[in-house]
Amino acid sequence: MACCFFIYLPGLMIVSIVFILKKIWESLSKIPPVPKLENEWWGPGKSGEEDTSIKPFQINISDEVINDLHHRLRNTRPLAPPLEGTKHEYGINSNLTKEITDFWLNKYDIRHREKFLNQYPQFKTKIQGLNIHFLHVKPKETQGVKVLPLLILHGWPGSVREFYEIIPILTTPQKGRNFVFEVIAPSLPGYGFSDPAVRPGLSTPQMAVILKNLMLRLNFDRFYMQAGDWGSVIMSDMSILFPEHVIAVHNNHCVDISPKAILKRILYGFWPSLIVEKKYEHLIYPSKKFFLGILARTGYFHIQATKPDTVGAALGDSPMGLAAYILEKFIDVDGALTKRFEMEALLDNVMIYWINNCMTTAMRLYAERYNTKNIDLGIDKIPVPVPTGCARFHLDIAYFPEALLKDKYPNLIHLTDHEQGHFAALECPKVLATDLYDFTEKVLKL
Fold this sequence. Notes:
cis-stilbene-oxide hydrolase activity, nine-stranded mixed beta sheet, alpha/beta
């Protein structure tokens, strides 16, 4: 009998392993219920009667703030010289940091840029205790075209400044298109000119509640969305929580970082041809190179997800340090900064962080998103239920083949590839706008 047992042992082990793997896969594939989130109060004091008025807003930088900025830029300490033969392997090269500082001090015309930033109608309104800032740009010509409400969201270390070049394209009727967009572009809570929360817990699902309420206050019960970076996470959360309000979403940062997706990425590493075209295979395989690349490019992530206030203390005190920390994220793969971006545009974005002293409150989003309380909501495991378009930019942090996106975006009706990078609205506004128009035409035909 013992001999018979050993004969069957290999088969029993195989069956046991298959059974265990099946249970693991079923656990990873289980979709949790959609959480119910209330209109939580995030401002000072307790929830009460709220001023629902919408007030015009203009950026007005005081002479005191400008003089203080110039004083700090003039009196920065000399930086440690870069190591010989290096570009940005150790972080932003100090020679480039000095160039940025010199440009900011001597060539960046703050009053001229202030006028530029005020070119679009801006407003503030209080929602759940927070003053929320937003651009609201209506198309000038609407005869013969449908006007579609579009909520566009930025991420970190971005701001509404990313959208200044794409807004005219979205709000101007395009040849051969029978629709145009009315654009609402808010500063995320804790970013730019929007108030930060005064107590813990304001993560992307809770921001989705606030921004949904913003659209309802503007009398948009149903609307389109476009976003990248953190904006894309908020956008996905909003479509999951409030699919009755979100018509469709266009995403230039489609990702799925659920345990199931990570496991699939590893398993497909043995057969890359099953999920990705040969010409794009180098973007995700070999797996070791891919994951080491992610690790090398996300050094900021861990500290911001654990101790944002610590690094925030330094970045809120040194404009040179703030510029170096932000603009390092915009450097091209070949080490260039102004090859794809204008220096004035980059410093406009830095200025928004500086004059509002909001880097600490912006970085807190990482800590709020990646903690047990928020993870336990399970929203990362819930598919986006509305029609989705994904514009993949190859210089972004990570490339996701369609096979790795289908679980998160089961209604993926539009998928395109582009050569540019992460900050698409600022880098290539025509490319992103055209992609959004193409996607919207598909949605309208549905």
